[in-house]
Amino acid sequence: MAEGARRLGIKTIWNCEIDDFARKLLKKEYPNAKQYKDVFLEIPEKRPNIISITSECQDISIGNPNAKGVFGERSKTIFGCIDICEALKPDFIIFENSDQITRKGFEFVLCRLSEIGYDAEWQMLPLTSFKLQQRRPRLYVIASNNKIGLQRGGKKEIFSQSILQKQFNRISPGWRDRRSIPEPRTLRSVNGFENYKNRIKAIGNMVHPRAAEYLFQCIVQYIK
Questions:
Q1: Looking at residue 63, what is its pLDDT?
Q2: What backbone phi and psi angles, to 5 degrees, belong to 153?
Q3: Cβ-count burial 34-57 (b if 16+ within 10 Å, e if not)
Q4: Cα dist. 196→29, 153, 189, 205 in Å?
C-alpha cells in the first residue's frame, strides 16, 4: 500500500508489522518511517492524514473451509487497526481484503467504523480494472472522517471511475492472459533465483501498487 502512496509523493511516517522478515523489507524501503510491531499493544505517536489498514485473510479466504470470519484468530487484526484509527482520528482510512469478507463479517467492520465516526464507501474490483492480469476481485474501502464530509457539504463518492479510465489504459506488462505469459511460467532455483523461499516469503496477497495508487488518487481528487 505504501508504494502506491509513494508514487503520488505521499510520505509514510510509520508502519506496523509483526513479521520480522516483512519488517526488514519495510525498513529497507522506508528507512525514515518509525516501526511498530503489534496493533493490539502499540498506538503510534504521530497522527497521519491517511491510515491504510488490512488483516490476514486466512479466516476469510474461500480457500479455508473452516474460516471463522473477521473474528477468527487469523483475521481479527482488522479490529486492532481500527482501534488505532479511533485513537489517532485520521482524515481517511483505506482498507483492502478478500472479496469473501462480505460473507464473513464485513458488516461488523462497517459498524465499528461507524462507531468511531467514519463513513465508508467500497468497491469490488479485480486487478484487470488496472490493466493487470488477475480477474479475482478484491474489496477496497475508503472511509472518511465524518467531519470531512460535513466540511465538504456532505459530498460523498470518493471513488472515481474517471481515474480508472484515464490512468490505467495500458496492458501491463504486455501479455493479456495466462496463456500468453512467456516461458518459464514457473520460477525455480534453476532460473537463477538464489534463496528462493526467502525472496517470496513476504509476497502473499499483497495490494498491487497500481490498486493502492488508485485509492490514494481518489482521496487526493476528493480533497481537491
A1: 76
A2: 65, 30
A3: eebeebeeeebeeebebbbbbbbb
A4: 20, 53, 6, 18
Chain mean pLDDT for the chain: 83
Q: What local confidence, expressed as pLDDT, does residue 201 receive? A: 60
Residues near 3 by beta carbon (within 8 Å), at least 6 away in sequence: 29, 209, 212, 213
Q: Which helix (H) or strand (E) holds 220?
A: helix 209-223
56: pLDDT confidence band, cut at 50, 70 and 90? confident
CA 27/CA 25 separation, integer angstroms: 5
Contacts of 133 (CB under 8 A, 6+ apart): 127, 175, 176, 177, 178, 181
Q: What share of the chain is helix, strand, coil (3-state, %, to 5)?
A: 40, 15, 45
| DSSP conformation class of 172 | S
Give residues with Cβ within 8 angstroms of 136, minimum separation 6: 99, 126, 127
Are 45 and 24 a contacting pair, CB within 8 Å?
Answer: no
Distance CA 120, CA 131 (A): 26
The predicted model scores a pTM of 0.83
- pLDDT category of residue 150 using cuts at 50, 70 and 90: low
Long-range contacts of 65-68 (CB under 8 A, 24+ apart): 67/100, 67/104, 68/104
89 conformational bin, left if phi > 0, alpha if psi -120 to 50, beta if neither: left
The dihedral over CA atoms of 86, 87, 90, 93, expressed in degrees to the nearest 10, equals: -40
Side chain identity at 160, as an amino acid letter? S
